Prior knowledge:
The protein is an alpha+beta fold.
Amino acid sequence: MAVRHRLIKASPAAVWDVLADGSRYAEWVVGTASSRPKLGQWPSEDASIAYEVRLGPLRLENETVVRRCREGSVLELEAHAGILGTARIAIELREWGKYCLVIVDEHPLQGAGSVLHNWGFEALIQLRHRAMLARLAAACEDGEPGRGPVTRPARGGKGADHA
């Protein structure tokens, strides 16, 4: 199993806000070009989003389904990747001082991915997770371009000032 972690310099609530917004899935998931709601209300159990993967001129439509959700702390997904099969991706958020420790655990469930799974495949997943967690950190720590950092309101109901 490919397990990786990263300390994100944002609160668990700020990280959860990004994970819980299905329209931002492509922002932090490596290899995803776009995403849109498909079924249910993301991230409720059994809700799904459709996403597109682009490999040069090739465009593949895939789907990710929420299999388990504990609001604010656990999101377990089943990613469907066509002939490659499916994978379980578990994301856990832990409060770590004023920051958030994010732990990602992924392994293939069915299809070619589970048959071909070996140490080389595991190494590729680790590289993908490193990039994915860096993108998630950027989305949580810096916010979207032009929007500023994702913050919680400070005393008096106003967000923190940013230089």
